[in-house]
Write a structure and sequence with these properties.
The structure holds three protein chains of three kinds. By secondary structure, chain A is mainly α. In chain A, 70% of the residues lie in helices and 0% in strands. By secondary structure, chain C is of the alpha/beta class. Classes of the chains: A mainly alpha, B mainly alpha, C alpha/beta. The complex binds sodium ion (2 copies). Chain B: One of its GO terms (molecular function) is transmembrane transporter activity.
């Protein structure tokens, strides 16, 4: 069970990393194309600006999940304690993560009137973007996906996931 | 009472090593509940989404990526060697380079955050390599990053101009002198610290020879040319220049034989993590700003100050205090949008100049990026480097003090600000 | 009961026609026992965020760009098409006397929001540029224009003018450095942002009236008593009247403001507007779809036939 949870967290981390890298490439490509098209083509592609923004949303949200997994989110203090203290600290930290994350996830699928229809995703399903006519659900979904992955990473920490990905990232 | 409880709980959370983003986010959520506005928590998913759905924000990840690719591709080293050849004989030379780089960068970017992201990923490692403490390198980077929004172009000056109906070109011209003055003050301080703490550089140091250094840096020099030239000569917008710079940094790194596929992937991964870390903090602060706006807090604060019955000088100083306080806890743009329309008209009635006031307010509000508890630039730099947040706060303090003194001078002597736009006939 | 009204601009009665709406709305609502709380300057968020809060009943009345709800009701793109409506009066008549407003609203109602009507933002849009006085279609040819969206790309394309999409946040910079040479906007936009420092030439071409939508939370509105709903209806009507009454006062100032800013105002040469209309009409179907355009034209012909 514990091992399975940690493997799930690792697999999700690998997946978010892949999505973030692909979307970062889309971002760089779309913005560069905008410059090239201005001087190369008579009619500029209308989708570059929108594609870059939506790609950034995916990169930023996947990055938020990666940052959580890697314990990269900056903290003001780093207390030093023993094993028991560490569990107490982790409990406090978990509480804060849950309080912030819960309403984001809840209101992604439930609206103020208690229905899915009024929720963030419910509205996204019925919306399309201005330039690409992309169903907005493809972009909006990044919000609940990222915070769900963060909760899985959090659970994996309780299951014993204690690896330090931060120092690896900084090299 | 409830709010004090939330405050106490948040401090506990921070002391327990909780990440700033989640502690502030949770405190905001609890404040919604305590204020009887839990229904408004329904704004959160869209608020999170909209924080990133901003085209102008693209420059930030793109500059971080450029910086990372430059580091891995040896481009940074070539540029630093050239800089050392030019200013290495001065003590604290790289500190001066850092400040000058921000002056040039200011001409490209209107954003202190973009400057901080780009510099802390390039100049901080370089300074550390040359024997500066990482903390000092990070502090100089932080202090000089706010030159960006003061020297034109500047997102925040455009925003103020639109909001208050002040001429944007006049504001841009007015920002030049204060920006250069700020750079001069920072360089003087850097020189003083260099002497006191015996920073690298000066007599006896091995300075690379200019000729070979220039030769090696030649391809690398195309990068600042792309970034600066692209924008100044109307080839591309800042975000676009940043994207082209990414491709150029990649190309040069590969051509130098120092950048491979693994390095590119690693740079991309780091950029995503960096963007993500900064972004969650922005979301948490945005949740808090929403609540403040919902309760009309900035408006109430502004109205109280406007009704204090202060004289012109006293009122200007009071405005500065309000904006300094707002800058500490609020997003720069939100603070200007909510406070300027309330505070500025009263000052104008007292005979203040809208352009002068614009520069003072923008200078002031960017100082919030350097002050605790939530200095945006400090958070980014301590994320990108590994300098502890509070060590950075302490190291930036002397610079911040000098900047506040300069702010006071700019407030009292409007001629410093207004001279250039007047000579150019913009006022 | 409190009514929360949100908008993106400042509470400035001189330049902001939406605030004129608020000032017309307020006394009627207050006389009916409501308290009106105004959130200017995007205090509650950008266009998307305010729309989202309106669908959830957190904002009761949102004054915003019609392009945001167009994501749910694409027919709303008609409000930004050039040369579709002849005048604000014609547009108002279509909204008041045909099914079109109902057509616009039906996909919005599912999302808990209803457009009660439209405010005017200022005068009709025209051509601004940094380089040359424009009197003919040919005068536009050497310029690279900033396009806001694919509608404007199509418009400039139809005129044979090159364009490039630049985000609003970068427009000032782009005009100054020459990334773009001009844009299409009502006078209000250029004057309020100080862009007139670079945009030295203006051509009033009456491209399209500049409308902003008044969005009402349907969940909130439906939950009101009959009496309260009548009050809100009367207040909305008073708001729209105040907005239309504001327009002539603003229009009278525009010329003086252009003169003060040193902007040359060039009228189109005789016959040029007809050429512009003819060249750009094909994009209507392209952007609204055949079916959408049919609906709009049906409504228009109904009014024009009367
Ligand atoms: Na700048
Ligand atoms: Na710097």
């Amino acid at each position: 069970m514990r091992a399975a949870l940690i493997s799930l967290s690792d697999a999700l981390h690998a997946a978010t990393r892949l999505v973030a890298l692909v979307m970062l490439a889309v971002l760089v490509g779309a913005v560069s194309l905008q410059v090239i098209a201005r001087y190369g083509f008579s009619a500029p592609p209308v989708w570059t600006e929108e594609a870059a923004r939506y790609a950034m949303i995916w990169v930023g949200l996947m990055g938020a999940a990666m940052s959580f997994k890697a314990r990269f989110d900056p903290a003001l203090f780093t207390p030093k304690t023993g094993r028991r203290g560490r569990i107490a600290l982790r409990a406090v930290q978990t509480l804060f993560v849950l309080i912030f994350t819960a309403p984001i996830l809840y209101y992604s699928v439930i609206g103020t009137n208690g229905t899915f229809a009024r929720s963030f995703l419910g509205r996204a399903i019925r919306s399309t973007s201005g330039a690409m006519d992309l169903p907005m659900i493809w972009v909006a979904a990044a919000v609940p996906v990222a915070f769900t992955v963060i909760l899985v990473h959090l659970a994996a920490r309780w299951a014993g996931d204690a690896r330090d990905l931060k120092s690896e990232l900084l090299t | 009472m409830l709010f004090f409880l939330i405050l106490a709980l948040s401090i506990l959370g921070l002391l327990a090593g909780g990440a700033i983003a989640y502690v502030v986010g949770a405190a905001s959520v609890l404040s919604f509940v305590a204020g009887g506005s839990s229904d408004f928590l329904a704004i959160l998913p869209q608020r999170v989404f909209s924080q990133l759905d901003v085209f102008a924000f693209l420059a930030m990840p793109l500059f971080v990526l450029t910086g990372d690719l430059m580091n891995r591709g040896g481009v940074t080293r070539a540029l630093i060697d050239l800089a050392m050849a030019l200013v290495g004989r001065f003590k604290g030379g790289l500190g001066h380079v850092n400040i000058m780089a921000s002056v040039f960068f200011a001409g490209v970017s209107g954003s202190a955050v973009a400057d901080a992201a780009a510099m802390s990923n390039t100049l901080v490692p370089a300074m550390r390599e040359r024997g500066y403490t990482e903390t000092y390198a990070a502090a100089v980077t932080a202090a000089s990053s706010i030159i960006g929004p003061i020297i034109p172009p500047s997102v925040i000056l455009i925003f103020y101009g639109a909001l208050m109906g002040a001429s944007v070109p006049a504001l841009f011209a007015a920002g030049v002198m204060p920006g250069l003055l700020l750079a001069a003050v920072l360089m003087a301080m850097n020189a003083w610290f260099a002497r006191r703490d015996d920073h690298p550089g000066g007599a006896g140091i091995a300075v690379p020879r200019l000729g070979p250094a220039l030769w090696h840096a030649l391809p690398a020099l195309s990068l600042p040319l792309i970034i600066l030239g692209g924008v100044l000569f109307g080839f591309a917008t800042p975000a676009e220049s940043a994207a082209v710079a990414v491709l150029a940094a990649m190309g040069i790194g590969i051509a130098r034989g120092e950048l491979d596929w693994a390095g590119i992937v690693k740079a991309g991964e780091r950029t995503a993590v960096m963007l993500g870390a900064v972004f969650v903090i922005l979301c948490a602060i945005a949740a808090f700003s929403y609540l403040a706006a919902l309760y009309q807090l900035p408006r109430r604060l502004g109205e109280e100050v406007a009704e204090l019955g202060l004289g012109p000088v006293g009122y200007l100083i009071a405005i500065n205090v309000v904006f300094l306080l707002a800058g500490m806890v609020m997003d720069v743009k939100a603070a200007v949008a909510l406070l300027a329309p309330i505070l500025v008209p009263v000052a104008l009635e007292m005979g203040a100049d809208p352009v002068h006031l614009g520069i003072v307010i923008c200078f002031n509000i960017t100082l919030g990026l350097l002050s605790p508890p939530f200095g945006g630039v400090l958070i980014i730099i301590s994320t990108v480097t590994s300098v502890n947040y509070w060590s950075l706060v302490r190291a930036v303090a002397p610079f911040l003090t000098a900047q506040i003194a300069l702010l006071l001078i700019l407030t009292l002597f409007s001629e410093i600000t207004l001279w250039l736009p007047r000579s150019l006939g913009l006022l | 009961e409190t009514i929360r009204i949100a908008m993106n601009d400042a509470e400035d009665i001189v330049t902001n026609g939406e605030f004129a709406f608020v000032e017309g709305f307020r006394p009627v609502a207050e006389a009916g026992g409501f308290t009106v709380e105004v959130f200017p300057s995007n205090a509650l968020g950008n266009e998307e965020e305010r729309l989202s809060q309106t669908t959830q009943g957190l904002i009761h009345i949102n004054l915003g760009a019609a392009t945001a709800p167009a994501s749910m009701s694409p027919l709303l793109r008609m409000t930004i098409l050039p040369f579709l409506f002849a005048s604000t009066e014609e547009f108002d008549a279509v909204m008041a006397r045909t099914e079109l407003l109902g057509n616009l609203n039906s996909p919005l109602l599912e999302n808990g929001v209803r457009i009660a009507g439209f405010n005017v933002r200022g005068l009709d849009a025209g051509f601004f540029n940094t380089k040359t006085p424009v009197a003919t279609v040919e005068d536009l040819q050497g310029l690279r224009m900033r396009a806001l969206n694919k509608g404007q790309v199509a418009f400039f394309g139809a005129l044979g003018v090159s364009s490039t999409i630049v985000d609003w946040s970068e427009v000032s910079n782009a005009l100054q450095t020459g990334v773009v040479d001009g844009y299409v906007n009502p006078p209000n936009s250029a004057l309020r942002t100080g862009h007139t420092e670079f945009l030295r030439h203006y051509t009033p071409a009456a491209l399209a009236p500049s409308f902003r939508a008044v969005m009402v939370s349907e969940d909130w509105y439906a939950g009101l008593s009959d009496e309260a709903r009548a009050t809100i209806d009367a207040a909305l009507a008073a708001g729209f009247k105040a907005n239309r009454d504001w327009l002539p006062g603003w229009a009278a100032q525009v010329d003086a403001r252009f003169a003060e800013a040193g902007v040359t105002v060039t009228e189109l040469a005789p016959g040029e507007r007809d050429r512009l209309v003819e060249m750009s009409t094909p994009i209507h179907a392209q952007l609204l779809g055949e079916e959408g355009l049919e609906r709009v034209m049906g409504a228009l012909n109904q009014i024009r036939g009367q």
